Amino acid sequence: MSFLTIRVEQVLKRRSEFLTTHGLNVISVRAEPGTVAIAIARPNRRVLHLPDVWKKWNPICTHGNHDLLIAVREEDSSPLFLSPKSNAPHTLIAGSTGSGKSVLMQNIILGIACTNTTAQAKIVLIDPKLGVDYFAFEGLPHLQGGIIDAQDNAIHTLNELLGEMNRRYTVLKDNKVSNIFDLNKKFTATERLPFLWVIHDEFAEWMMTPEYSDSVSDIVGRLGVKARAAGISLVFAAQRPDANVMPMQLRANLGNRLVLRVDGEGTSEIALGEKGAERLLGKGHLAAKLEGASEIIFGQVPFVDSDFLGQVVEALKQAANSAPS
Q1: Which of 40, 65, 242, 308 registers the highest number of CB atoms within 10 A of its CB?
Q2: Residue 214: C-alpha distances to residues 155, 161, 196, 206 (Å)
Q3: Nearest to 148 by CA among 125, 166, 171
Q4: How many CB atoms lie within 10 A of CB 160?
Q5: How far apart are CA 67 and CA 254, in angstroms?
Q6: What is the pLDDT of residue 249?
Q7: Which residues, 6 or more positions from 144, have their beta carbon under 8 angstroms from its beta carbon?
């Protein structure tokens, strides 16, 4: 009996031949122990809907939930989680038009709001595009300050984060705990602190402005080491996080990478650390490089129907209005 030995390089060299001769669109080729894993696009993709995916999600929310279900893994259909507690505290999201970036952001915001009370989590949402992708979230009780769409307001808000982080460290010291997670579990805690998610869409729009670029780079750099314990997580998203709008130091502090289809190999190398994201299929097809994971994880972000989104946000509003003060 003879065995055929195949290498990743051999498959990559014949990628065009597989497509033109056999009609096989090779999306990724990865070396694994004893095998070469080849991902090939299906002729017809199945749409994953958020309610169906959430039926299999049972988060533990007693002290707030920090593990967000963001996608379904391609290899075995198991859930893929983003966790500022288990992974890096800060995240970069990249994806071109049609990649599904806005849907991923909606998944993250809904996941936070539906698994945390307003006392357990707050969301700061910054969007240079005047909030056009987030109108459905207007009035969401978890939103702190509404949707921030002015540059000066955004700089002021980000600067306030530094003061809040230092205040939180004083609270941790007074309660003799090392992080917000232990603080919120402590029966005799003097104060319980909500986890603070700072979600900044299309940050590249304003990074061309020197004042904004300097402020953001400084703030993220100072938050990089201390934010996890203080319960502050940054999620920055852009179509093209190019080097001219995303300094290396800033990129290094955004340890988790959630990358959808991008416009070229260069953008993929900047966002993901290697080529390949330019070959993703769009519409929520995701490559994730998470701190603590040994390799890139491919997955599918579930689709959020606008009617479902509106119903959930309205239910959260009503629940907040009826809650005892």
Answers
A1: 65
A2: 10, 15, 22, 11
A3: 125
A4: 13
A5: 17
A6: 74
A7: 122, 123, 124, 196
**Among candidates 218, 219, 220, 216, which has minimal Cα distance to 204?**
216
**Residue 197 token pair:** 């998610």
Tokens of 268: 């993929």
Q: How far is CA 246 from the centre of its chain?
A: 17
Mean pLDDT taken over the chain: 86
Quote the tokens at residue 63. Answer: 């002290």
Q: What is the CATH number of domain 47-322?
A: 3.40.50.300
What pLDDT is attached to residue 247? Answer: 73
The Cα–Cα gap between 231 and 226 comes to: 9
Based on its alpha-carbon atoms, the radius of gyration of the chain, rounded to whole angstroms, reads 21
| Pairwise CA distance, residues 255 & 291, whole Å | 6
Q: Going by C-beta distance under 8 Å and a sequence separation of 6 or more, which residues neighbour residue 167?
A: none
CA atoms of 226 and 283, how far apart (whole Å):
35
Residue 256's pLDDT is what? Answer: 94
Listed residue (303, 226, 298) closest to 26, CA to CA: 298
Distance CA 40, CA 218 (A): 42
Q: Comparing 209 with 195, which gets the higher pLDDT? A: 195
Of the candidates 51, 27, 77, 28, the one whose C-alpha atom is nearest the C-alpha of residue 302 is 51
Give the model's pLDDT for residue 165: 93
Taking the C-alpha atoms of residue 1 and residue 147, their distance in angstroms, rounded to an integer, is: 65
Q: What is the pLDDT of residues 10-29, one digit of tens each?
A: 666 566 555 556 556 666 66
Taking a C-beta distance cutoff of 8 angstroms, is the pair 257, 289 a contact? yes
Q: What are the sequence ranges of the domains in the chain? A: 1-44, 47-322
In 83-126, where do the E strands start and end?
91-94, 121-126
Question: Both tokens of residue 222?
Answer: 């100072």
Return the structure tokens found at 118. 């307003």
| Cα distances (angstroms) measured from residue 61 to each of 39, 171, 205, 216 | 36, 23, 35, 32
**Token representation of residue 272:** 């993901």
Instruction: Choose among 43, 40, 33: nearest CA to 11.
Output: 40
Q: DSSP 3-state assignment of 264?
A: coil
